[in-house]
Specification:
262 residues; alpha/beta; Rossmann fold; eight-stranded mixed beta sheet; 41% helix; 14% strand
Length: 262
């Protein structure tokens, strides 16, 4: 494993790394999505920010404007009830406004209540699968033609190793996202004639509001904050990740070095 890959969690982007790049980020209003959005805007990206939290999006918009970063486009959408046609409309709107998409980060997630298998509700199954599997699948499908219009397109997934007790549909959905990544990295590889760089980041446990809600017994501050992983996302979404199609970075259990899965 070369040193460049070992040190990606401490990646320091050059000024203007993402100048002019059009990036769509889901789950942008809080947690990792918000920190990655801030970092991308700081480095010149033109952002389309998607989240169900409209107030959170507005505060992020105000922060970008106050800092003099490129003005983002807001897309308040709740993946829990979104339909396929609505996802197509989002992609159409991005295409009409920008003509292309340089990067798509599928980051939105909802774990749902941690529940014993025999008590897992069908309603919870539907919501969790819609947010974590169906919505990113079809949003990616509709955005793929826009990505292929870009000179250096990136499709990035926020992954999560959730194959453990009580995680129900979330465990299956995140395993499905990884399968989707592997499928698309093969389908849109360098030899395809229409290559799209497909990557994944599993940041391990990160101190966010969502994690505190899902794991209330954890001691506050026992995990790093979102800023600890933003550098790896900048690397993946920028030109320095060229040639790394299919790569998954994983940093479980607080390890300093990522596991590289070619």
């Amino acid at each position: 494993m070369n040193e460049e890959l070992k040190n990606l969690w401490d990646y320091e982007a050059e000024e203007g790394l993402l100048d002019g790049r059009v990036l769509l980020i889901t789950g942008a209003a809080g947690g990792i999505g918000r920190e990655v959005s801030r970092s991308c805007a700081r480095h010149g990206a033109q952002l389309v920010l998607l989240d169900h939290d409209e107030e959170g999006l507005k505060s992020l918009y105000d922060e970008c404007n106050s800092a003099g970063w490129p003005e983002p486009t807001l897309c308040p959408v709740d993946f829990a009830g979104v339909g396929i046609d609505h996802l197509r409309q989002i992609a159409d709107a991005v295409g009409n406004q920008f003509g292309r998409l340089d990067g798509l980060l599928n980051n939105a997630a909802w774990v749902g209540p941690l529940t014993p298998f025999e008590h897992y509700l069908p309603q919870t199954w539907g919501l969790v699968m819609n947010i974590n599997m169906a919505a990113p699948f079809f949003l990616t499908q509709w955005c793929m033609p826009l990505l292929r219009r870009a000179p250096d397109p990136v499709l990035l997934f926020s992954l999560h190793d959730a194959s453990r007790a009580y995680h129900g549909a979330f465990a299956l959905a995140k395993a499905g996202q990884r399968a989707l990544l592997e499928m698309l990295s093969a389908e849109y590889g360098p030899e395809s004639g229409h290559p799209v760089r497909v990557l994944g980041i599993d940041p391990g446990p990160i101190e966010t509001l969502g994690r505190r809600q899902n794991y209330p017994a954890e001691r506050l501050g026992s995990h790093p904050g979102p800023e600890a992983v933003a550098g790896a996302y900048l690397w993946a979404l920028g030109p320095d990740s060229v040639g790394r199609n299919g790569l998954i970075l994983s940093a479980h259990d607080g390890r300093a070095d990522p596991k590289i899965i070619p």
